[in-house]
Write a structure and sequence with these properties.
This protein has about 50 residues and is mainly α. The chain is about 95% helix and about 0% strand. It is built from one helix and no strands. It has one helix at about 1-49.
Length: about 50
């Protein structure tokens, strides 16, 4: 059983790493999207004024 876990460990580590990258990428994309919508709202506000 120990060898099975030892063989599984690198795959688990890789999965965790990929998951962290995916979460970080999504968070970054969401931040950019929020910034873009905020810019659009600000420009439309200026356009009206």
């Amino acid at each position: 059983m120990g060898t099975f876990l030892e063989n599984l460990a690198p795959f688990a580590l890789l999965l965790i790493l990929l998951g962290g990258l995916a979460i970080g990428f999504q968070r970054e994309a969401l931040r950019h999207h929020r910034a873009r919508t905020a810019d659009r709202q600000a420009s439309s506000f200026v356009w009206r004024a």
